[in-house]
Write a structure and sequence with these properties.
Blueprint (H helix, E strand, L loop, with lengths): L1 H16 L1 H4 L6 H6 L8 H4 L13 E11 L7 H13 L24 H17 L1 H4 L9 E5 L3 H14 L16 E2 L16 H9 L2 H26 L10 H15 L11 H19 L11 H15 L7 E6 L1 H11 L14 H6 L4 H4 L5 E9 L4 E7 L2 E3 L9 E2 H7 L8 H5 L3
Parallel strand pairs: 1-4, 2-3, 2-4
Antiparallel strand pairs: 1-5, 5-6, 6-7, 6-8
Helix pairs in contact: 5-11, 6-8, 10-12, 11-12
The structure holds 2-acetamido-2-deoxy-beta-D-glucopyranose (8 copies).
């Protein structure tokens, strides 16, 4: 009996002082990707080259393509880098972090594309060419026929160029690579109601972004309930003093995301959090995102109306023979895509996202910005004309078609589509966004 107690004592000493046994976690990249924890797209799809051409109903032909992609993987933004600098200070004396506690992301690079992010949109372009092989067959670049646009920032412009390189790969006139020079336009940010509709909307800035009590209540409740617990666990385990600020916990996950995007490493910051803590950290971002860019605020369900309006105008222009444009290719923010989803009423969870969800409910959430909208995600609106005079539209996100609520199937009658979004087409954006 005494020997047994002695053995237990020795074993418990061994467990609590063996850092590799219980203090950090060793995740493979496959594991992290499979848990949908961040914006980085799994390499299997991001760099896929075995793309099958789409099939569609007989007697129909794809006539017009509207493509809206998110920019490629980027460097962190200003707030993220500042948080990483705070994490650097907090973890400076933590032994398990000694090889990677320093922030490697310089402020001068904020929001620019990382190398992976320059390559991803190129693959999106290659994949577009293969997926819509019949559509592109024989089409020569002409700025009146193929229109390129992006949000006015460097990461969007560069992503759009990379996409066009992939799309026209080897088909242009320039040098040995046969690149195709293209024209693209970028409206001034604060007037860009089609892509930058949130900050272009004063009411959104004042009520959804700045003074959003619904969001703040949920985010603070979650912080006091969940982030405080994780921060305490980390401070105790790693003897951090003064203790880790709970508000920095979600940035441990974000730091891990950028180490993966920029350095292809999954061993650094992610190794601090347990599988459950990784998901709980993501849910903090899910909550914020939901109240800022998804169904958590009713304004978001109308804010995408300018994009839909121009979509309808371009389709009608083509159908009535007044326009020769067949492809409209854009590069935008992840926020733009979520506003378009909220405006279309798609990807809505069965329950609202709140601070008091159980862990099981959090595990079962299907649609969140972080789960859904990878860097370099692609959204396509495909327009078909059929021999029985029908016009159909199909919407495809990251290669998966989805049914727009109100439509009978993924192929939706054009007239039905217009009817569903009646009030959101030709909306009065200025009036909607006037404040107060
Ligand atoms: C992590 O796991 C991999 C494979 O399972 C192994 O090769 C590696 O040595 C482990 N790293 C650490 C720090 O335990
Ligand atoms: C880390 O250790 C150094 C040297 O012992 C000490 O000066 C510093 O205050 C410590 N920093 C933290 C955050 O504990
Ligand atoms: C949003 O609101 C903030 C704070 O009131 C203000 O400083 C900023 O200029 C506003 N931005 C826009 C685009 O209206
Ligand atoms: C913030 O919103 C609340 C209502 O949601 C309102 O009472 C308050 O005046 C607003 N504050 C500012 C600074 O606009
Ligand atoms: C806890 O709640 C208070 C009051 O709502 C808030 O100011 C604080 O930021 C919250 N803490 C965290 C970590 O979210
Ligand atoms: C990234 O790391 C994974 C796993 O270690 C490896 O399989 C892959 O080839 C690496 N990718 C690049 C681009 O280096
Ligand atoms: C045709 O296009 C021109 C220029 O884009 C526009 O001014 C005109 O109103 C259009 N006509 C019809 C019938 O849509
Ligand atoms: C969870 O929070 C929401 C919003 O604050 C509230 O409406 C709901 O009743 C709460 N649910 C439970 C089970 O406490």
């Amino acid at each position: 009996m005494r020997n047994l107690l002695y053995l237990v004592f020795i074993l418990s000493l061994f467990v609590s002082y063996n850092p590799t046994l219980c203090i950090t976690y060793n995740y493979s990249q496959e594991y992290l990707f499979s848990k949908h924890l961040f914006y980085v797209e799994p390499p299997q799809t991001a760099f896929a080259t075995d793309i099958k051409p789409i099939s569609y109903p007989a007697k129909c032909d794809l006539k017009q393509l509207h493509s809206v992609s998110r920019h490629g993987s980027r460097y962190p933004d200003e707030i993220e880098i500042a948080a990483f600098e705070s994490l650097e200070k907090t973890f400076a004396n933590v032994s398990v972090a000694k090889e990677w506690y320093k922030n490697p992301f310089p402020m001068s690079k904020k929001l620019q594309l990382v190398k992976r992010g320059e390559i991803e949109p190129y693959f999106d372009g290659l994949q577009c060419r293969k997926r819509y092989a019949k559509f592109w067959d024989g089409v020569k670049y002409d700025p009146e026929v193929i229109k390129f646009q992006s949000t006015q920032t460097s990461r969007h412009g560069a992503s759009l160029m990379a996409f066009s390189e992939g799309l026209f790969n080897g088909k242009g006139p320039l040098d040995t690579c046969k690149s195709q020079p293209i024209y693209y336009s970028t409206p001034p940010l604060l007037q860009d109601a089609e892509h930058y509709m949130f900050f272009a909307c004063r009411r959104w800035n004042e009520t959804v972004f700045n003074n959003n009590t619904l969001r703040d209540e949920q985010v603070y409740a979650y912080g006091n309930k969940t982030l405080v617990t994780i921060a305490k666990r980390l401070s105790d385990t790693h003897h951090i003093s003064p203790p880790l600020d709970p508000n920095l916990v979600p940035y441990i996950l974000i730091n891990c995301q950028f180490w993966l995007a920029a350095f292809n490493r999954s061993d650094a910051w992610c190794s601090l959090l347990s599988p459950k803590e990784l998901l709980l950290s993501r849910y903090y971002w899910d909550l914020r995102y939901y109240y800022q860019f998804l169904y958590g605020h009713p304004l978001n369900t109308r804010l995408g109306c300018r994009y839909l309006t121009q979509l309808v105008n371009e389709v009608e222009g083509y159908l009535n023979g007044n326009s020769s444009m067949i492809a409209d290719i854009r590069n935008v923010l992840g926020f733009t895509l979520s506003i378009l989803f909220a405006t279309m009423g798609v990807f809505k969870n069965e329950y609202p996202l709140t601070a008091n969800l159980t862990f099981e409910q959090i595990q079962n959430i299907k649609y969140t910005g972080h789960r859904l909208i990878y860097f370099s995600s692609t959204l396509y609106y495909e327009i078909y004309t059929c021999s029985d005079d029908r016009v159909l539209i199909r919407v495809v996100f990251n290669s998966e078609p989805f049914v727009v609520p109100g439509c009978e199937s993924e192929y939706c009658e054009w007239s039905k589509f217009k009817e569903i979004f009646g009030g959101k087409i030709r909306c009065d954006f200025e009036k909607m966004c006037a404040y107060p």
